Amino acid sequence: MERNSIKSELRKTKLALRDNIDPELRLEYSLRIADHAFEGLAVEPGAVFSGFFPIRSEADIRPLMAGLKAAGARICLPVVIDRETIVFRELVVGAALVDTGFGTRGPGPEAEVLDPDVLLVPLSVFDGRGNRIGYGAGHYDRAIARLRQKGRSPRLIGIAFDCQEVAEVPLEPHDVPLDAIITESGYRRFVD
User: Fold this and answer.
1) In this predicted model, what pLDDT tens digit does every residue of 113-157 receive, in sequence order?
2) Which residue of 76, 135, 142, 152 is surrounded by the most CB atoms within 10 Å?
3) What does the pLDDT look like over 30-54, one tens digit per residue?
């Protein structure tokens, strides 16, 4: 089986497992993820964290983003500009939210575009070495590449549930491993 077919099958299987988590349990797991994040993250005042509003059955990291903001971080959200590009717009209290692609909402075009220091990355599958499978559009891969071309090296922290882990993710040349993952079980750093 070729790599793309394997990734597609892993994505389908793990997203089905995530979808089957009871909504009340998913909320509890999301709160645990926020607690574990603060055990592993150092928040420098003014540091820029990219978060996300949950779609479908993703972990809800809004409590985590609120805690980061309270600790002095600036928060931004990904916004789909076209089929190839996402940018990260600052989320500020009181600003209107607009449709930003993939069924989610976020800051409008008047919001400041930021380059994140830390990306909290949604995903469909991950392994114990920090490799991930996204949703198949490659938005985060391209965004990370653009940030690196600008001389930036953001920390990449995956957000997922334990049920999304597999023994091994098949790699492609453009894949960039995560620095850490946060699940309901804890904050796990990956080392080479």
Assistant:
1) 999 999 999 999 999 999 999 987 788 888 999 999 999 999 999
2) 76
3) 999 999 999 889 899 999 999 999 9
Predicted TM-score (pTM) of this structure: 0.94
Q: How far apart are CA 181 and CA 156, in angstroms?
A: 8
Q: Is 127 helix (H, G, I), strand (E, B) or coil?
A: strand
Question: Which of 188, 36, 65, 76 is closest to 126 using CA atoms?
Answer: 188
Q: Where are the domains positioned within the chain? A: 3-189
Distance CA 14, CA 162 (A): 10
Q: Using CA atoms in the order 168, 170, 171, 175, what is the torsion angle rounded to 10 degrees?
A: -80
13 phi, psi to nearest 5 deg? -65, -50
Q: What's the pLDDT score for residue 191?
A: 66
- For 165, residues 6+ apart whose C-beta sits below 8 A from its C-beta are 125, 126, 127, 128, 183
Name the helix (H) or strand (E) containing 17: helix 3-19
Token reading at 81? 């500009």
**Ordered DSSP codes for 76-122:** EEEEE-SSS-EEEEEP-TTPPEEE-STT-EEE-TTSPB---SEEEEE
